[in-house]
Hints:
Rossmann fold, Arc Repressor Mutant, subunit A, four-stranded antiparallel beta sheet, 21% strand, elongated
Amino acid sequence: MRILIIEDENSLLGIISKRLRTEGYYIDTASDGEEGLYYVKIADYDLIVLDLMLPKIDGITILKNLRNRKIATPVLILTAKDSIHDRVTGLDAGADDYLVKPFSIDELLARIRALLRRQGENKDNILTEDDLVVDTLTHRVVRGGREIEMTSKEYAILEYMIRNKGQILSRAQIAEHAWNFDFDCDSNIINVYIRYLRGKIDDGFENKLLHTVRGSGYLLKHKK
């Protein structure tokens, strides 16, 4: 799961992003509204954590921009404003939940989990290709009836590839999904993880699903 946090308090931004990463989420961060809106335009997120009082572009403007562009990504608002009017304004603008500062990180995590579960219920959480089955809610991976254990990074790459099965995905696309934007996609770490995935989902199976397209990237597809 990939989450964007737009928050101008650097200490709070650091605390939230560090905790979410330890929980297995993939995090991008922005410290002002202009930067946050830029990230929203160039990447897909499973959830956005949005402060309202931001420099350059305020949170309500960002939220309205998202909803006007028919982007349905769940948005959890963070704000120091706790009046009923402020809550109604945020919810009417398209927010899915509202958390007033100061708050417990554990409560923030619980609300994030609830929003992601709700989002998952509105989608088909079972993804398949040939005899490979990926449950995006439980992160359970099965091939040929055999459950496969995966690290969080391996799972993130596999889920991205099976959601885009049949499409050639470049190293840069995979890096942007499973790592942060500052990741050096010229390193060989992506090759290493693709090798790990091959060992887990293809070794021992006659039909190979993970393919290299020389000079272009990688492809998940059952080739008849």
